[in-house]
Amino acid sequence: MALSGGWWGRAVARARGASGFLRGEAWPWRARAARYSSGRGPGPPAVTELDKADAWLLRKAHETGFLSWFRNGLLATGVGVISYVQSDMGREAAYGFFILGGICVSYGSASYLVSLFLLRRTMMLSVSTALLNCAAVTTVALFWLCAISLYIGRLEVEIIQDDSPNDKCQDKKKEDGKSDK
Question: How large is the average pLDDT for residues 148-176?
Answer without folding.
Answer: 61
